[in-house]
Amino acid sequence: MQFQLQNLALRHDPFPIGVARPLFPDDDYARLLEAYPNKEHFHYLGKVGHKYVLSEKFNARAYRDFIHNTPVWRDLHAWIKSDAFIYGVMHSLREQNIDLGFDAPLSTAKRLRKYAKNVAKGRYWELSPKLRSRFEFSMLPADGGSVIPHTDEPGKIVTIVISMARADEWDPAWGGATDVNRPKDATRLFNRMNARAEFEEMELLDSFAYEPNQAVVFVKTFNSWHSVRPMTGPADALRRTLTINIEARG
Question: Which residues pair with 245 in a beta bridge?
Answer without folding.
Answer: 134, 159
